[in-house]
Specification:
The protein is of the alpha/beta class. The chain has helices spanning 19-27, 47-58, 74-82, 103-110, 134-149, 165-170, 184-192, 222-230, 236-251, 262-269, and strands spanning 2-12, 35-40, 63-68, 87-92, 119-123, 125-127, 161-164, 197-199, 205-207. The strands form two sheets. The chain has a seven-stranded mixed beta sheet with strand order 3-2-1-4-7-5-8, sandwiched between helices. The chain has a two-stranded parallel ribbon with strand order 6-9.
């Protein structure tokens, strides 16, 4: 394992409309990752072709790994991709998200310092518009406040997560058997908080796609969120593996539901 180096894992499923923009963000990072892992999760569009072209053009700059994971489900793609990470730190990116040039630089800084050795994960704040807009600034302030007041919960999605590889593997990483539902990004943080801290640095952000605005079909309820927030840390295991497990089982919120792309259906019908 090469110390101080970074990997970026990008799972994708039928993302030909935005994958090129996401991959271009890799080219402009001020801290260039040494390893890029692109995981094709049974795409049926041109996405795999775009990744092959990217490797042909820029394979001399990075170690670019192209791999297929035929089992449907983002978590399967994450398991396959993260197993190939050979660096001390790695980030998981979503194909429809924009990452600014200093993204990995700021993530790396979050792991440094006197108490940096006990940091298990560094998370970004997702904004939904210009960084200088009131809405974005308010969201950054909100996440900073929540992360301070409620340090035993996750305040970021999988599009904005970075991990210390050793601690990630110590807790077993992503596991579709341990957690076969949506919100795998929150469940992995629950595991990591047992072995280290999670940081949300000021100024560490990414711009998520507006199509994420409507996730009501594949997420938890307001009641679930409130209970999650106010459940003590020593009871978080009960919250996930007893309470939320039962709720998601009844509602059929298994991880394969994340493959639904209603924005494409809506686009065709309009």
């Amino acid at each position: 394992m090469r110390e101080q180096n970074w990997a970026v894992v990008i799972p994708y499923f039928n993302e030909e409309d935005c994958l090129e923009q996401c991959m271009s963000c890799l080219l402009h990072q001020t801290k260039r990752p040494s390893q890029i892992i692109l995981v094709n999760n049974a795409s049926t569009d041109r996405s795999p072709l775009l990744t092959r072209e990217f490797k042909e053009r820029f394979g001399h700059l990075f170690e670019i790994v192209l791999i297929d994971e035929p089992k449907p489900g983002k978590i399967h793609a994450l398991v396959t991709g993260t197993a190939l990470v050979r660096t001390d730190y790695f980030a998981t990116w979503d194909a429809d998200t924009y990452y600014p040039p200093d993204y990995l630089t700021k993530a790396h800084t979050g792991y440094q310092g006197r108490k940096g050795s006990c940091v298990a994960a560094v998370m970004a704040t997702n904004i939904k518009g210009p960084l200088s807009s009131f809405k974005s600034l308010f969201r950054i302030f909100k996440i900073q406040t929540l992360a301070t007041l409620f340090s035993s919960e996750c305040h970021a999605g999988g599009y904005a997560e970075t991990f210390r590889t050793a601690l990630f593997r110590k807790v077993g990483g992503f596991d579709p058997v341990r957690w076969p539902y949506v919100l795998e990004d929150h469940e992995i943080v629950e595991c990591l908080l047992k072995v280290g801290r999670v940081r949300y640095p000021v100024g560490f952000w990414c711009l998520t796609s507006p199509r994420r605005a409507d996730r009501c079909r594949v997420t938890w309820t307001k009641t679930d969120k409130i209970l999650y927030r106010y459940t003590p840390f020593f009871m978080k295991k009960w919250f996930f593996y007893t309470y939320l497990w039962s709720r998601f089982e009844q509602k059929g919120l298994f991880f394969h539901r994340l493959r639904e792309q209603p924005w494409k259906t809506n686009k065709k019908s309009s």
